[in-house]
Each structure stands twice: as structure tokens, then as C-alpha cells.
Amino acid sequence: MTDLLSRVLARKAARTSDAGAPKSPRESTWRLCKELSPLLRLLILTQLAFNIGFYAVLPFLAEHLGTAIGMAGWLVGFVLGLRTFSQQGLFVVGGWLVDRFGVRPVVLAGCVLRIAGFVWLGYAEASWTVIGAVLVIGFAAALFSPAVESEVARQSVVWEEDGRGPRTRVLALFSVAGQAGAFVGPLLGALLLAVDFRTACLAGAAVFVLVLAGHLWLMPQHIPGRIRIRERGGARALLRNRRFLALCCAYGTYLLAYNQLYLALPDEVQRVAGSQAPLSWLFALSSVLVVFTQLPVTRWAGDRLDLRRSMTAGLLLIASGFAVVAAARPAGWTGTAALLPAAGFVILLTVGQMLVVPAARAWVPDLAEEGRLGLYMGALSSVSGLIVLAGSAATGFLLDLGLPAAVPWLVLAAVPALAVAVLPRREKGAGAVA
Q1: CATH 1.20.1250.20 fits 1-228, yes or no
Q2: For the segment 176-192, what is each residue's pLDDT rounded down to a tens digit?
Q3: What number of CA atoms fall less than 13 Å from residue 147's CA on the CB side?
Q4: Where do the structural domains in the chain lie, given as residue ranges?
Q5: Topology of 229-434 in CATH?
Q6: Can you give the residue ranges of the Major facilitator superfamily (MFS) profile domain (predicted)?
Q7: I need a labelling partner for 168 at 20 to 30 A (CA). Which of 123, 269, 271, 429 fits?
Q8: pLDDT tens, residue by residue, 316-370
């Protein structure tokens, strides 16, 4: 009880001190970076580097497989699906390995596999070799991503309990780093493709060589406070943890909504503009919003909302984004001005994402068993990934039914709105979302 009271007081003190902090987004970001521990700075820079290396290659993979390798369209889709499965589907395995062996060895193994996978992909010329390389690349992420995400989440709790500020601010900075990498990576890849696809793959591998070297040098052998679990039974307890599974379901509806940037939105842009060329500008709009406004949004939410209310607001904003397009569809507008509803959808989806993602990641440590944070962070991605897999198939079927124009978008709006009811409730006396 005393420990609980001290945590509550620390959170209140953090919010009070945070309210007087500089309001300039750039100044706030710089101040926050300076206050982070060396380990947190390493992990956040790792996320930036991961995404630069990843997005320098993967956005151009489909075209390479279809043109240079000569794969049929269905096989290209199958290969891309395999990559997603070997990554998202196996996050829970990576999380279990983190709890069993620690962060450092799992991150290093993931980096080695990603280097091998990118080099292999650069030289792959047959379908089976491409499939092998893609599986290795996906499994590499299933190793290092849960390791990095779970440790950032754990360190953010330590940050909050020390009275330095809400844990969501650290997790928001982690999201900013990832989004910045996702923005820079394709630009780097496009420049390298002027040479060839192999050069882009080797450059991506080189990024991970640098990450590997950095972690070999800077990552401690044992992180203070990190407990390694030898006993079995974590998966069984996780499956009985209804509050955590409810969080996974709600988070999965956000990921399903985000996936519509690649499914429903291209269809809408093609209808309005006659091509998918404006998509790149809409994706850039989303990335720029996250990079420049994630921290101010998180600061605002941290001063006013607990984790459940933050996720609720985010999911309702996402639902309203789909509703904007649904309201405009019956008019059948075309041309440049008709892209405004799509832009509104991207903006509302992105702002909703900025509320949902840090809150969801910040919530997991409160719901996870002691010493099994890696397993739970991995399961968050894996369970949500299964929801996206099933939901995306249903969305594709819905879009092909020939229903009235607004209906698919209204259905998609209803999903995140209904997910609000699924979110776990606060426990009495917890003082914060538990």
C-alpha cells in the first residue's frame, strides 16, 4: 500500500513539474533527450536506425519481385504476407526469449539475422531464395523489436516512478524515432535504387552492422532490475489475463484501422484522383505529423487523461476519420479538392495513433506478470497482428461486394468506436490505470 501511494504521489509530482516545462516542441524534445538515461537513448536511437534500414529496402520489394525476379502477382502477395507473419506472428516468441535470456543477446541475434537476410535478399534470384531471405528478415524483427520495446516500456516505468514525468512521454519519443526512420528510410532507398536493388539491400545491411556494433559496445551485459524467468507457465497465465487480452483486442482495432492506409485509402485515392500518385504525399503528411507533434500531443494527454481515456479518445478520433470519408463518398466528388476527405482521414487517424500507441505500450507493464514483460509486449503485437490478418481479409471482401459507397467506411468507423467498450476498466484504488 505504501509503495502504491508513493507511485501515485510521484506521478502527480511529475505532472505538476511537467506543467511548467517549456512549451516549444523542439525545446521540449531536446530537453527530454538530455534527461534520458544512456540506455534509453541507445534504445531510442536503435529504433530510429532499425526503421531507416528496414524502410530503405522493404517499400521497394514488391516491384523488385515482380519486375527483376518475374514473380506472379499472387506469389508477390504471398511473399509479403510471409514476411508479415514471420515478424508479427512470432513477436511472442521473441518476447519469451527476451524474458529467458535477456535483452542484449536477443537484440544481437536479431541484428545478425537482419544483416544476413538483407545480404541474402540482395543476391537472391530465384523464388525459393527470396522466400528464405524474407523469412529471415521477418524473424530478425521478431527478435529485436520485442526486446527493445519491452525494455523501453520498463525503463519508462522507472522514469515515471522516479518522478521525472509520465511514462507516455518516453514512449512517445520512441514512436517519434520510429516514424522519423520510416520517413528517412524510403528517401535513402530511392536514392540507392538509382544504382540497383542490391545496393539498397547492402546499405540496409550496413545500417544493421552499425547497430550491432553499437550494442556490442554500449549495451550492458545485465540491465539492473531486469529479471530473467526460468520457469514455464507464462503463456498459460497470459491467456487467462482477460484485462491484457482486452487491451490487445482494442489495440488490434487500431492496427486494423492503420492498415487501411494500404488497403482502403489507395482505393479511395485511385477513385478520386485517377491514380495513386497522391498516396506518397498523404503518407508523408502522416509521418511529418508524428515527428513534429507526437510529443506535444502526449504532453497534453498526460496532463489531462489517464491511459484508458487516452486510448478512448484516440480510438474515437480514428473512427471519426473513417466517418469523414463515409460522409463524402455519396457525393462522388473527384479531382484534387476531392482528396480533402482522404487527407482528413489521414490526419484524424494519425492523431488517434499518437494517443493510442504510447498509452497502450505504457499500459502493458501494469498488466504483465513480474519478469514477463517481453512475453507480454510480444503478445500485444502477435495477438493484434492476428486481428489485423482476419480484419484485413474481411475488409477486402467488404470493399469488393459492390455495396453503397459509404457502407464500407461506416463499418470501418464502427470497429474502433465499438472497441472503446472492450478497453479494461480501472481497478478500484489503483490510483492510475492498471
Answers
A1: yes
A2: 888 888 888 888 888 88
A3: 30
A4: 1-228, 229-434
A5: Growth Hormone; Chain: A; (1.20.1250)
A6: 39-428
A7: 429
A8: 999 999 999 999 988 777 777 788 999 999 999 999 999 999 999 999 999 988 8
